Amino acid sequence: MDYLISDTDDKFSKKKVKVLITVKTYPLPSKTYQETVCTAGVKEDGTWIRLYPVSFRYLPYSQQYKKYQWIELEVVKHEKDPRNESYKPYGEIKILGQIGTQNNWEERKRYVLKHIQPSLELLKEKSKGGVSLGVIKPKEILDFTVEPVSGEWKDKWQALFKQLKLFGEQQKPLEKIPYKFSYRFTCCGENCAGHKIMIEDWEIYALYRNMLKTYGSKDKAIEKVTEQYLHRFPKEKDLYFFMGTTRKDHHRGTFVIIGVFWPKKEI
Known about the structure:
Blueprint: E1 3-4, E2 15-24, E3 28-30, E4 34-36, E5 39-42, E6 48-51, E7 69-77, E8 86-98, H1 102-112, H2 120-127, E9 133-136, E10 140-148, H3 155-166, E11 179-186, E12 195-199, H4 202-215, H5 218-236, E13 240-245, E14 255-261
Parallel strand pairs: 6-8
Antiparallel strand pairs: 1-2, 2-5, 2-7, 3-4, 5-6, 7-8, 9-13, 10-11, 11-12, 13-14
Helix pairs in contact: 4-5
């Protein structure tokens, strides 16, 4: 249950919240915060919250939460982010415990699927009112695409890294993955013509890195990622997508897949 830290009813008063983490996106450079990870999750009533910014890799190890862990922390509504669910985290993050996969993710489903959206089209319509997070179920997976992108960060981020190094600030190497991954799918919208949506989940980038380390070949790494996302997941898993808008594109209702929820298919 949320409760106010401040005695006022100000929109920007601090609140203490309990959040079940469901999403962590791949880190991106930030001039203000060095780097940021978009974290999202659900509260006990199944409503969504986005925690931004989080310099996840620079948190104390005891505060580096995993997916499907309950955390407790203080937050305040993000004054520069109009999206309904966006809050700034403050102070220490307390990790409370983790929900496992028992009974085919039964307890995870209880929270994650409490407010599932019927279609991406409806979710886009709701984004006009500030909604920027949600869960949808794809009707059919049509394809999984891997497209090459630059393996180097933009010049402004390269300059930032050099500046940080010059001033002796703590800096952990941040690898730029030279590919973008997308799903093509239909959803349950009445007139759905299909969607091609980029995946920004940390897990898919971590899988690519692990496969590259294992096999020493980009082609083999891509093959293994494709095997999981195009063949294994649609065949074996009951797929749902965590959807979120990017801050700069929210006004256009542009959603990306920020995570995949994949309990087994039940016969």
